[in-house]
Design a protein that fits this description.
8 helices, globular, Rossmann fold, alpha/beta, 11% strand, disordered C terminus, single chain, 6 strands
Length: 229
């Protein structure tokens, strides 16, 4: 079933710089890798495993939040600045992070005085950061996120609470409610299996190829539908 409001022209080329975002457990890295393979794009992945403070952060957020957030901010800013130095608009890439999400996490985890310090560094580093041609925002309710986190079995992530996931999802919603720097596609993954369902994934790719501007929602109906709002 198709919707007359859905974008057309699906033979268009994909955006050159695509970012996939969303809360932990939503499947952003999995989708990023699949899109890179489909489009023949280079991968740009956040190096969470390279953060020496992350495991300690999950054990004691209050003590390790500032170190964790500053490491991530510096790491991601370096990655994006390297794109600009190597001419972003010649290579094509899919990334599993948006630099703006660093401020989101900082707002959730840092004390007021730490946040003031963080913001000074943040504002300095994001100047002239390359902007995506499309941001894909993946969503899912907390029980779905929790189930996926448990299933993938990363030990330090098992300490993440439902309360933290609720706060994180609300913060993401707030971020993208106002986000207008790039075209935005919002995807509720609760009823989608983008990792294993060929139909779900191909329908999403077709929709991506049609987007050039604006804000969009993608979600399945019976048997499938995608709508622009």
């Amino acid at each position: 079933m198709s919707n007359p409001e859905a974008p057309t022209n699906s033979n268009e080329q994909p955006p050159k710089f695509v970012v996939v975002e969303g809360p932990i457990g939503v499947g952003k890295t999995t989708l990023t890798k699949k899109l890179a393979a489909t489009f023949g794009y280079e991968l740009l992945l956040e190096g969470a495993a390279d953060n020496p403070f992350l495991e300690r952060f999950y054990e004691d957020q209050q003590h390790w939040a500032l170190q964790t957030q500053l490491f991530f901010l510096l790491q991601r800013a370096d990655q994006l600045n390297s794109l600009r130095q190597n001419d972003l608009f010649q290579p094509v890439r899919v990334a599993d992070f948006l630099i703006h999400k660093d401020r989101l996490f900082a707002g959730l985890t840092l004390a007021d005085d730490e946040l003031i310090l963080y913001d000074k560094v943040y504002q300095h580093l994001i100047t002239d950061i390359p902007k995506p041609d499309l941001v894909i925002y993946l969503q899912a309710p907390t029980p779905v996120l929790k189930s996926r986190i448990e299933r993938r079995g990363i030990i330090c992530e098992q300490q993440i609470t439902d309360q933290y996931l609720d706060q994180l999802s609300a913060a993401y919603h707030q971020l993208f409610h106002y986000y207008d720097e790039s075209p935005l596609l919002m995807v509720n993954t609760a009823e989608l299996n983008l990792a294993e369902s060929t139909r779900d994934y191909e329908n999403l790719v077709e929709y991506i190829l049609s987007i050039r501007s604006g804000r969009h929602h993608f979600y399945p109906l019976a048997p499938f539908d995608a709508r622009q709002v």
